[in-house]
Amino acid sequence: MTKVTLNVNGETRTASVPPEMTLLRLLREEFGLTGAKLGCDVGDCGACTVIVDGKTVNSCLMLAPQADGRDVLTVEGLATMERLHPIQKAFEEKGSLQCGFCGPGVIMSAKALLDENPDPSVLEIRDALAGNLCRCTGYSKMIEAIQDVARGDNRQPVGESA
Amino acid sequence: MKRRGRGIACMWYPIGFTVAANPSAAVVKINEDGTATLLTGTVETGQGSLTILAQIVAEELGIATDDVHVVSADTDTTPMDTGAIASRTTYVTGNAARLAAEKAKGILFEVAAPLLQVKADQLEVCDRKIQVKGFPQRHIDIGDVADRARGVNGQPPIGSATFNPATVALDPETGQGKPFATYVYATQIAEVDVDDETGEVEVLRIVASHDCGTPINPMLVEGQVEGGISMGVGFALEEEILFDASGRQVNSNLTNYIMPTSLDMPEVVVEIVDSYDPTGPFGAKGVGEPTCVSTAAAILNAIHDAVGVRVTSLPATAEKVYAGIKAKRAQEAKQITAG
Ligand code: FES
Ligand code: FES
């Protein structure tokens, strides 16, 4: 067993895990954070996307011990009890998701994109979502929602959420 | 060199099969606070059916969509439904929900009529009120009428209904008849670039014009069309289950079973052709499966327009398109030599 200590959504969490455990399983099974989804478990679908030290990763491809000492942000870290994150709000308003299975991953990819590039072109948005497969929507309404957030249509007072 | 082409494809699609029993049932209960509860056996899978059903009930009762509490897909409480299949939910389950709401509303009208000193058929609903047609100032809140219906008249406003598109047997000899209750229509146009040195096809734009009767929720209709087109793009260019000689799937994961990513999807323009089907709930038909019917045909016609090659098996991979281009060039060279 290996002891891992990491910062998850602003909180320090510790667990003792087998060295081969993935970050995705650590989040879901040890920490009860089931937002990141297990789609393929081999890095193809993006349903497990989380942000580690500011970069998106497929958490099914990262071992839990590799996340030791790092900052992990999952979809649970975006909304507060009072309000959704602007990206979530925009997704809700546009009807960007259907079954929703890809949603947590897509939203984390969108968050990482907008953090780095607050005014992305459509092609840059498509590029940022290219690792997140969606079977339902054709991506159109996700792209529109991300554009809305970039334009500030869903802006909220600074400091109210992640 | 990249060659541009455009292709068009049209389709019709049947809604509400009639060759076998195809019922949906619904229960609508109007509550004393003016809200309503809908019981339906159908399942929400993200397509938005429950929103549509809530909108239908709200429209029938003159209340807001948010006032309708939907209880769905629970065998303990909800009536059985033929299923969220065959693009039938808006049409068949929607009709059942509207009829159930209409029945519950009928009870309220009976209760409200003497209070407003008119006949029940002179009443209508609007903005959470029951009012006299042509005299909207003469009105009572729906919640108050519902309360009175139960507490004074002893008849709680509950309606239940079934909708089953009339079953019509097909002629056993000719196989002909009326197999569906109604039909929807669509045309899609695809614009593509085909690289004539590699056979690679890039879909640049798809314009999709769909009739679904009256669109009860245009945003959800667009969502269905956009999603259907992504399936159509996959069907046209990427998706294929491959088996080995013993029947085992050889491409059983998403690195070799290829489906469209955000970079493969073209710009999609959705146009809803507003129409009205008198047999549908508020004129609506359906939109699920029909959305991916024309896409592959439009793309393959566009490939033909671009490079003159007819691909006759799907998906039209770069390899197949390039083989077609090569064969066509060889054919042309032969004709030149022969000539
Ligand atoms: S579950 Fe990690 S990429 Fe599919
Ligand atoms: S919404 Fe169903 S997979 Fe994306």
Please give a handful of descriptors for the protein shown.
heterodimer; A: 162 residues; alpha+beta; Ubiquitin-like (UB roll); DNA polymerase, domain 1; 2 domains; five-stranded mixed β-sheet; 15% strand; disordered C terminus; B: 339 residues; Aldehyde Oxidoreductase, domain 4; four-stranded mixed β-sheet; 6 helices; 26% strand; elongated; binds FE2/S2 (inorganic) cluster
Explain what the structure shows:
The complex is a heterodimer of chains A (162) and B (339). Chain A folds into 2 domains: 2-77, Ubiquitin-like (UB roll), CATH 3.10.20; 86-151, [2Fe-2S]-binding domain (DNA polymerase, domain 1), CATH 1.10.150. Chain A is globular. The longest helix of chain A has 14 residues, at 103-116. Chain A has helices spanning 23-30, 86-94, 103-116, 122-129, 140-151; strands at 2-8, 11-17, 49-52, 55-58, 71-73. Chain A is built from 5 helices and 5 strands; from the N terminus they run E-E-H-E-E-E-H-H-H-H. Residues 157-162 of chain A have low confidence and may be disordered. The relative contact order of chain A is 0.17. A 5-stranded mixed beta sheet of chain A has the order 2-1-5-3-4, sandwiched between helices. In chain A, strand 3 and strand 4 form a beta hairpin. Helices cover 31% and strands 15% of the residues of chain A. By secondary structure, chain A is α+β, with helices and mostly antiparallel strands. In chain B, a hairpin with a 5-residue loop joins strand 9 and strand 10 (201-211). The mean pLDDT of chain B is 97. Chain B contains 6 helices and 11 strands. Chain B is elongated. Chain B has helices spanning 49-61, 89-116, 142-151, 218-237, 295-307, 318-338; strands at residues 2-17, 24-30, 36-40, 68-72, 123-126, 129-132, 135-141, 158-163, 180-195, 201-211, 267-273. A 4-stranded mixed beta sheet of chain B has the order 1-9-10-11. A 4-stranded mixed beta sheet of chain B has the order 4-3-2-8, covered by helices on one side. Chain B has a 3-stranded antiparallel beta sheet with strand order 5-6-7. Chain B is an alpha+beta fold. Chain B has 2 domains: 2-14 and 181-335, Aldehyde oxidase/xanthine dehydrogenase, molybdopterin binding domain (Aldehyde Oxidoreductase, domain 4); 24-163, Aldehyde Oxidoreductase, domain 4. Classes of the chains: A alpha+beta (162), B alpha+beta (339). Chain A binds chain B through residues 40, 42, 44-45, 94-95, 97-100, 125-127, 129-143, and chain B through 45-48, 219-220, 222-223, 226-231, 253-255, 259-263, 265, 268. The site of one FE2/S2 (inorganic) cluster has 10 residues of chain A, from loops.
